[in-house]
Amino acid sequence: MKYKFMTALGILLFFLTGVFTIGCTAFMGSEKEPGYRFAAAWGVKGSGPGEFYDPTGIAVTEHEVFVSDARNSRIQVFDFEGNFKRQFGAAGKEPGQLGRPMNLTIAAGELFVADYWNDHIEVFALDGTHQRTIGHAGSGPGELDAPGGVAVAPNGDLFVADFYNQRIQHLRSDGTFVRQWGETRKTGIWAGQFNYPTDVALGPEGSLYVADGYNDRVQVFSRDGEFSHKWGGPFAMDISGSFQGWFATVTGITLDPSGHVFVADFYNHRIQKFSSSGQFLTAFGEEGDAPGRFNHPIAVAVAKEGVVFVVDYANNRIQKWRAKAE
Description:
Blueprint lengths: L1 H25 L9 E7 L12 E6 L3 E6 L4 E6 L4 E5 L12 E7 L2 E6 L4 E6 L4 E5 L12 E6 L5 E5 L4 E5 L5 E5 L17 E4 L5 E5 L4 E5 L5 E5 L18 E6 L5 E5 L4 E5 L5 E5 L12 E6 L5 E5 L4 E7 L3
Antiparallel strand pairs: 1-24, 2-3, 3-4, 4-5, 6-7, 7-8, 8-9, 10-11, 11-12, 12-13, 14-15, 15-16, 16-17, 18-19, 19-20, 20-21, 22-23, 23-24
């Protein structure tokens, strides 16, 4: 009798293990691309030119790298080799001043800065000349509470990750409210709901990609605003993890010209790359302070020829990576 019981128990455990393995495998991606190799890094903690104190955002042109130097309340600009070129912004609440600049976007020759502490979007010419301020503090339509990121459409419309308001807002170029995704001040795990959204990006075809920060996932909406798809862990429902294709807090998102999606996976100390549909392609980085390792990567940008720049937040530096050969 004891033998039969042990045999049955063994079969049950084998079955459950198999089900668990199959279930996990179904939610785990496998490498589809050869990955990336470390190329260079620059920056140390400080307040001088080329130094950083909690860098948080990044954007690139064909020749320059713009970095949000958050605790120093400024934007720093470098060439692709990390040579300091200029800086602008100063601590304050007046036009052209910055509180805690976060994720950056460049569009139509202007730099759009999500200012987390000042509850608005600051817009600068690329030489640092202040152009205008969009939005103000609040939870009403068009108002912001700690914006984390902004995307700009070809017609000038803005899409803003409104962090504490738990929503994404669509605004006209002058800040006029158009619509929103998510219920103001309410978190949720279902499609179209958010748990502290941190960043946004627009795809080549106009789709809206949202870094749904504490839900550990990416959500995608079609050009007409309808929910399209999501990914990150089982059913993309606030389950964090370190498997490929899973996240542990999503803090930055960007797309390359081909529509590939790059995601800063903050607590997993890595950058993950996906197809536009959410298929896992590759990942790079692991925890550490040595060159080629990350200590909480928070933002990512892709430049010409596929060069990837990463804000290595807690290491107070920028890292540069290149795609490996096939």
